[in-house]
Amino acid sequence: MTTVIAAPSVRALAQRKGIDIEALARDLGRTTIAREDLDSAASPTAASAPDGDRSYWDVDHAAYGPVTEEPMSRFAQLASANLTAANALIPQVTHHDRADVSEIEALRKDLKPEAQARAIKLTALAFHAKALARTLREFPRFNASLSADGKTLIFKEYVHIGIAVDTAHGLMVPVIRDVDKKGLWQIAAEITDLASRAQARKIGPDEMGGASMSISNLGGIGGIGFTPIVNPPEVAILGLTRTEIVTVWENDVPRPVPMVPLDLSYDHRVINGADAARFTSYLASLISDPRRIMV
Asked: Do 74 and 101 fall into the same domain?
């Protein structure tokens, strides 16, 4: 049996909260448990229904026809509790825009031989992460967190980007550190590495927290837009969906342009609509001219 590593203070806190550290470690696929893991392990039943009213869900579905059952994993229950709390407690708004990715796609094509030589998959997501990091430096209010009492805004001097990964055992959001200081090759390599290890449940607790902002990328699946839920204590999240060809008119001449939809959800307690529009517009300008993000 694998021994779970946890500080004595963490074990004491887990005991007070009634959390089984060994079971939590198994559910998260880890051998080390930190204090922040306990914070996210609050009982999901408290947030499973409004005001504790379970009557909406307490239905005998079998009375209407055949059914089958599948138990929710502990990991899925924790994610459900966190998402429910985030959606209930944060006044969220989503701003929609799109960005021209012609230059990014042309650059990726030019760099394909070098990418193969480096054995690195240079995805568009690496460019988006780098552009987002640059935008966060330009708009520091988005690179902040609100204190628990809602009275203090904490500005971060670092830029860490969370990358949401869809895995067989649930959504995981490993974090790339200091994205603003790294080049595209390193960012691309880290995205591939984190995604691979997330699928294998080999992400450590020190790789999961502390993001400035997260990206939820559905581009490989499809869709024209969605409303991602802000991942507290972050104050915003960027959603990406599949690139589409949009007709752009220039002097009465139509031109097909590949555009990526941008969906920015934000905490309205911290960010107003005008700020969100300016943020997304600046981000789109960087995406349309990737040379600016590599300076």
From this structure: no
